Q: What sequence folds into this?
């Protein structure tokens, strides 16, 4: 049988471990669904021939292949061009979009028209 002092020490030790684990998990997990977590990147260089230092800072990426000449790349907003294709009620949508798809267009929306057909909105990068 355990002594009361040993039982008390065991209880408080278990409580401290449980509280520490809760704090650690809460610090790592987002507090609300959809909240972003901290981005972490691991770059492993196995030898001097594989060394590629990468610095990510202020939305710019600096990849240094030669330490004397860094290559700077920055994020840029993608520009799009849009086009609409009228589609009569009895038309085949696949046939109407086949040529546009071959030209790089992507369907993003379908809007019904008053005449019973629809209009398909397309986009592609500029």
A:
């Amino acid at each position: 049988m355990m002594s009361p002092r040993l039982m008390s020490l065991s209880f408080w030790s278990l409580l401290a471990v449980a509280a520490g684990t809760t704090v650690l998990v809460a610090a790592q997990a987002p507090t609300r669904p959809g909240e972003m977590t901290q981005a972490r990147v691991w770059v492993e260089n196995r030898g001097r021939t594989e060394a590629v230092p990468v610095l990510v800072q202020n939305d710019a990426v600096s990849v240094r292949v030669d330490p004397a000449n860094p290559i700077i790349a920055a994020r840029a907003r993608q520009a799009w061009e849009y086009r609409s294709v009228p589609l009569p009620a009895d038309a085949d949508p696949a046939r109407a979009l086949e040529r546009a798809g071959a030209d790089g267009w992507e369907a993003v929306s379908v809007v019904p028209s008053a005449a019973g057909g629809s209009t398909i909105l397309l986009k592609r990068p500029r």
Helices lie at 4-28, 93-102. Residues 4-28 form the longest helix (25 residues). Residues 1-31 form one domain.
